[in-house]
Design a protein that fits this description.
Elements lengths: L1 H9 L2 H22 L2 E14 L2 H4 L3 E7 L2 E9 H4 L7 E6 L8 E8 L8 E5 L3 E21 L6 E9 L2 E7 H4 L4 E7 L7 E10 L12 E2 L3 E21 L6 E9 L2 E6 L1 H4 L5 E7 L7 E6 L8 E3 L5 E10 L1 E6 L6 E3 L5 E7 L4 E6 L1 H4 L4 H4 L2 E3 L6 E3 L13 E5 L2 E7 L1
Parallel strand pairs: 1-4, 7-10, 13-16, 21-24
Antiparallel strand pairs: 1-3, 2-7, 3-6, 4-5, 5-7, 7-9, 8-13, 9-12, 10-11, 11-13, 13-15, 14-19, 15-18, 17-19, 20-23, 22-27, 23-26, 25-27
């Protein structure tokens, strides 16, 4: 039995061996075809920056001009390479090895130790280029900016921060772009003073927030106290002082706003019924005065401006005086309080006129009828009264000058 089985195994042994060898070669060929060597490119692998403290010790800060990510070409068996992506690799640049041209070599290795001998890696560009800059520290005052609307009848009057100065450190060009250090506080629906804490925000000259990661502040938040007081609306009064140049007069005073909103403790508000601007001087002037003044400078201590209009714009118009000469007849003058037993006769000198001086708008329409000249006779005795007093109706803004003489003769009836 054993001899027969041995005979079957040895029969055509060469052919059987050849078949096995052929099958192995076929298997090897299929494996090489299906798991062949391939090459893939993997992009945008983040580059870790190592030993940056070596540059900071030299009071320098750096910024990556080129090479914050790296692209690589990976070669290896398809079964190993085809599923790899950027997260499977570690790219790094040792800043302590920076060359005199401010460049650092980038190295890339796979995270998995098991495939390091299975693949080859080459970088498309293995150089990181740095921009070096002087590191500076500058101090800035902290401003509080509120948003939202307080409860009706109340307003934000003052703000304080603790501390009120912070230090900003970073690249010189970046730090010098900072124009405001701000803390924003929501005051919606508040009707009393409050204490809170706010996050420090940096802004440039265009009002855009700066979020440069290379800039650091001495602290990230500050304590904030907000004073909120009741409000009161009061009229604004502008008093003009002084005398303009000879021949000129104030024709109009215009200003806006004519009312303003103030805020403060109730006992302080009770003492204020108007806001008076009393330092508008026009002495010796012959041209219009146009100016703007800050309303808060006319407020007493512990009273605050709560209006959005912080200035009052004032225009004082000056106009040259004009003169108008009115000829007068005896019939234009009325004799009042005459006695029935006396006779009255009025005589005017040849040069008798009334000269009216004032603004053109007031003088243009003036005439003798509006002046209504009159003489009161009650206290005049019999006889000739030379240069007798003539009474004229006073019209605001006008001045009168009587030239010539008026003689009133009174005789017994």
């Amino acid at each position: 039995m054993k001899s027969r089985m041995r005979s079957k195994i040895l029969d055509n042994f060469g052919l059987k061996l050849l078949s096995v060898l052929f099958a192995f070669i076929l298997w090897l060929t299929v494996m090489n075809i299906s798991d062949r060597q391939i090459t893939v490119e993997i992009d945008d692998i983040p580059v870790q920056q190592l030993n940056g403290a070596a540059l900071e010790e030299l009071d320098q800060v750096y910024d990556v001009a080129k090479g914050d990510t790296v692209d690589i070409i990976v070669k290896g068996r398809r079964s190993v390479v085809e599923d790899l992506d950027a997260s499977d690799f570690i790219a790094s640049a040792d800043l302590s090895t920076m060359s005199i041209t401010n460049t650092v070599q980038i190295s890339v290795v796979p995270k998995s130790v098991g495939i390091r001998d299975e693949i080859s890696i080459s970088c498309v560009d293995n150089v990181m280029r740095l921009n070096l800059e002087e590191k500076v520290s500058l101090q800035y005052s902290v401003k509080v900016k509120t948003f939202g609307s307080t409860k009706d009848g109340y307003a934000v009057c003052s703000q304080q921060t603790s501390p009120n100065i912070v230090t900003i450190e970073g690249p010189k060009s970046a730090v010098e772009k900072v124009t405001e250090v701000v803390v924003r506080v929501d005051v919606s629906h508040l009707d009393k003073s409050t204490d809170t804490e706010g996050v420090i925000l940096l802004y440039d000259a265009y009002g855009d927030q700066i979020t440069n990661g290379k800039i650091s502040t001495s602290q990230s938040t500050v304590k904030v106290h907000i004073d909120i007081y009741p409000t009161k609306e009061v009229p604004v009064i502008v008093n003009v002082k002084g005398v303009p140049k000879d021949g000129y007069k104030v024709s109009e005073v215009i200003y806006q706003p004519q009312t303003t909103l103030i805020a403060g403790e109730p006992e302080a508000l009770d003492k204020i019924n108007e806001l008076v601007i009393n330092d508008m001087y026009i002495s010796g002037m012959d041209e219009d005065l146009e100016t703007a003044v800050e309303l808060k400078s006319y407020l007493p201590d512990n009273v605050y401006l709560a209006d959005s209009s912080e200035e009052v714009v004032i225009t004082v118009s000056l106009e040259e005086l004009v003169r108008k000469q009115l000829n007068v007849k005896t019939s234009d003058i009325t004799l009042l309080q005459k006695s029935t037993d006396k006779t009255y006769e009025l005589e005017l000198s040849d040069d008798f006129v009334i000269v009216v001086t004032g603004l053109d708008s007031a003088v243009t329409d003036i005439d003798i009828a509006k002046l209504a000249p009159k003489i009161y006779c009650k206290d005049l005795s019999i006889g000739n009264h030379s240069n007798v007093d003539i009474d004229l109706t006073q019209i605001e803004g006008l001045e009168y000058e009587i030239i010539g003489t008026a003689t009133l003769s009174i005789t017994s009836e």
